[in-house]
Amino acid sequence: MKTVRLSIIGFGAVGQGVARAILSKKEMLTGQGIDLCVVGISDSKGSEINVRGIDLKSALERKKQKGTVATGNESALDIIGNVEHEIVVEATPTNIKNGEPGFSNMSAAFNSGKHVVTSNKGPLALCFSQLKEAAEDNGVFFRYEATVGGAVPIFNLIHESLAGNRVIGIEGILNGTTNYILTRMAEERLPYDLVLKEAQELGIAETDPTYDVEGVDSACKLVIIANSVFGEAASYRDVDVTGITKITPEALELASRNNYVVKLICEAGNGTLTVAPRLVPKKHPLAVGGTMNVASILTDLAGKITISGKGAGSIETASSILSDIMYIVRNS
After folding, report:
1. Residue 135, Cα to own-chain centre: how many angstroms?
2. pLDDT tens digits, residue range 109-138?
3. In the prediction, which pLDDT does 205 show?
């Protein structure tokens, strides 16, 4: 049995999703000779450390009852630097102003020779090449499938299945909240404000939806794709962004009469990075509804390949994190 020790830094929806995924897949992993042993969990109020392995069920229960996993007050950096383990799962909230605390957590992990798997867009949208170089300098893996598209395996597809292809361009829908709003506005002929309120009540939109509806979240994800796939050194400030707040039911109805839908489309290729509402033919592969995400990848050998799936949700995001963990386990 191969024991792989990991820490979960950030125990909100995503971090808890990772814990649940590890619990639910324990039997499957054991069957493959793998024991994923979580030795440290940190949230904003404290931490739990157990070098023999944390009881994830009781950690999840404590978080639910008390709002924190804490049994001690060690910081995330204490766990990363001082507790022996192989993989740091960095799942703290996205901060696109300065990328903290994610950037410091990832840097500390690399400097202490630990692999990083992350769902945190902020540091990658601001300092991707710096983090990539730090991982390479320390001879460790840096995996970030969960930063873009929830459960949709964009990076795995491009870097592994399509290895040998040159990617010419990528376009897609990378934000489930805006896609839900536009879908509902078009189907029910409802005004933007009303649908936004509905999305907030359903938990699809944040209390402050600015990042989503202004296109900032999509721009961050597009930058991570551009840097990872095209080797650019862009930050989200380099993206030409237009959000969806000015779109009216009348505009959507006019589009529909001409067999189009309006979608917030991200495009990367030929040195351009844009996020803007676009007219998409109703029968087009990019015309997905609800909270779905979709990416269409144009390559020189395989032509155009389109994948879609759930772009958000704690278990969906945990699916991508688990896939990255498994990649490291098998390749290290």
Report:
1. 19
2. 999 999 999 999 999 999 999 999 999 999
3. 87
* 221 has catalytic annotation: yes
Question: Looking only at Cα atoms, what is the longest distance across the chain?
Answer: 63
**Domains, in order of start, for the chain:** 2-150+314-331 (3.40.50.720), 159-310 (3.30.360.10)
Which amino acid does the sequence have at 204? I
Spatial contact of 104 and 77, defined as CB atoms under 8 Å apart:
yes
Other C-beta atoms closer than 10 Å to the C-beta of 236 total 24
How many Å apart are CA 305 and CA 158, to the nearest integer?
Answer: 10
Of 20, 28, 159, nearest to 91 by C-alpha is 20
User: pLDDT for 230-251, tens place per residue?
Assistant: 998 898 889 999 999 999 999 9
Are the C-beta atoms of residues 70 and 45 closer than 8 Å to each other?
yes
pTM of the model: 0.93
- Burial class of residue 26 in the structure, from the number of CB atoms within 10 Å of its CB (0-12 exposed, 13-18 middle, 19+ buried): middle
- For 184-212, the pLDDT digits (tens) are 999 999 999 999 999 999 888 888 999 99
Q: Which of 63, 221, 263, 310 is catalytic?
A: 221
From the list 2, 66, 68, 10, the residue with the least C-alpha distance to 36 is 2
85, 116 contact by CB (below 8 A): no
Burial of 172 (0-12, 13-18, 19+ CB in 10 A): buried
Map tokens 């991707």 to a residue. 128
Separation of alpha carbons 103 and 174, rounded Å: 23
